[in-house]
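Structure tokens please, single chain.
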Amino acid sequence: MKISTTFCGRRLRSMLLTASISVFVEIANLLVDKIVAGQILGEQALSAIALITPLFSVVFFVGVVIAVGSIVCYSYEIGKINRERASCFFGQGVILSVIAGAVLSLVLCVFREPLFALLDISRDLVVLTESFYKWFVLLAFLIPLNNLLQEMVYVDGDTQICNLSCISLTAVNIVASVLLAKHIGMEGVALGSVIAVVVSDLILFLHFLKKTNTLKFRWHLTLRDCSLVVRLSLVEACDYLFFAVFSSPAIRSLVAVDF
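Here you go.
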């Protein structure tokens, strides 16, 4: 009993540490691109990325809508020892993440011109924003799946892989963005973020090679289960959507005052 209690205590501390690292990384990654752009490329580059910040929130909103509900349903079914049904929710989460990423990227491409027209900013700032936007479109495709895998691997108890993935997400972003920004400017800042997410995904995929892995992909996609996932996620996900809605005019007004 003492050994079991000690093991559970260590496991709990490990998971709490991973959750804390995850929150820190989420905040840090929102700042990395801004800091790198501001320090290396100047104030206008910082303003250009600030204009894209609400779009990041929209992408995170979509990712959280899928991830939170999926892990709740997965954990519930695992608790009932219904692994087949749990695998259905994992598979559905992966499918929804890929579809959502593709739709986000498509929408960002289709509405690119109207979006930049609404910004109504100086030509120099438009050029910088467009340079970042080129790779942001790909980033929008990658983020939902990355969010889902982070949450699922965490729920599966692999805190080591989660920690490594989170730390690499920030570390690689910093190094790649700094190096690339010096050579290709704003595109390099965005490309650094893309590389960081890809590296993070590759690390997360290592979990699926372990014998302890219980995440099994099962092709599953039903309207009923999709709506259940969305309902369970919507309250938490709306934090990101509200931030996007309210920060957009604020950022736009500040940029207009400065430039």
